[in-house]
Specification:
five-stranded antiparallel sheet; 2 domains; Jelly Rolls; 286 residues; 6% helix; mainly beta; 21 strands
Length: 286
């Protein structure tokens, strides 16, 4: 009888460990199941710490069963301020008939969304993802106790931030969007990728800033050989746009930053035809 009890306890512990899968640096980052509620979609921000990171795919948790169609979108920089702007996002992929494992209570098993992401995020750069159920039944699970922008999971190489849920029934619908919710599931990733810009230029080679650190003026130079119209914008570290300028057939823009508070900011080059960020670099304002 004692042996049977020991075996049963061992099996339960093994199951519990499996459902609570742990984060492994340069492999998978998990956001645990806590105080779960159901929704149709969510926005999340990710930021690599030491190395460039290749985001491979997401796995989600679900309480409510059913087959569903899912879209996954991506943008460089935070989702904040772009929740209802489809032009700011790139559709990574769509899947029909996604039918994940379901569990009523925590801990919950994760189910991989069969959409390959393959996005390389530069070290230190925040990048955002928008995962949305477009049709069908079932749900995704989130925690509603985390303040937006706080770190909810970190393994030393990748950080995940609490974001916003999307409870509407179409992409970028403002209905049902609420801050202070965190994704529950996992992201599969690897370290050491090389971000590529247009014409094979690396992400960092497309932009130069000076003087660094900056005091009153910031000059932004960029490779514009393959773009006729670009936009240059200055954002804070959470992605809020502070300054913006449209430039035609030029390769330099100058910003008066004398009124900015001292700190770190980001200069971004954007392809005006599709809203995609093609280059960016951080700078310090004294």
């Amino acid at each position: 009888m004692k042996l049977k009890f020991t075996l049963l306890l061992s099996a339960l512990l093994t199951l519990n460990f499996t459902l609570k899968a742990q984060s492994v640096a340069c492999d998978s980052l998990y956001s645990p199941c806590t105080n779960t509620i159901s929704t149709n979609g969510f926005f999340i921000d990710l930021r690599p710490v030491n190395n460039n990171v290749l985001i491979e795919y997401f796995s989600t948790m679900s309480q409510n069963p059913g087959s569903r169609d899912v879209d996954v979108y991506w943008k460089l920089g935070s989702y904040v301020g772009f929740e209802t702007d489809p032009n700011a996002w790139t559709l990574i992929g769509s899947i029909t008939g996604f039918n994940p494992d379901t569990t009523i209570n925590c801990p919950m098993a994760v189910s991989r969304i069969p959409i390959q992401i393959n996005k390389c995020i530069p070290a230190g750069q925040k990048s955002s993802f928008y995962i949305m159920k477009m049709n069908g039944s079932g749900s995704f699970e989130v925690n509603n106790d985390d303040s937006a922008g706080t770190i909810i999971a970190s393994d030393g190489e990748l950080r995940m931030f609490a974001g916003k849920i999307a409870s509407g029934y179409s992409a970028f619908d403002s209905f049902g969007q609420h801050d202070d919710h965190s994704f529950q599931g996992s992201v599969k990733y690897s370290c050491g990728c090389t971000p590529q810009g247009l014409n094979g230029l690396s992400f960092s080679e497309r932009i130069k800033l000076f003087p660094i650190p900056a005091i009153d003026e910031l000059v932004v130079e960029y490779n514009n050989s393959d773009l006729n119209v670009v936009s240059v914008q200055i954002t804070d570290l959470i992605g809020k746009v502070i300054m913006y300028s449209d430039i035609k057939n030029e390769s330099r823009s100058t910003f008066n930053i004398s009124n900015l508070k001292g700190g770190m900011y980001v200069a971004q080059i954007i392809n005006s035809s599709n809203g995609v960020v093609v280059a960016e670099s951080k700078f310090v304002k004294l």
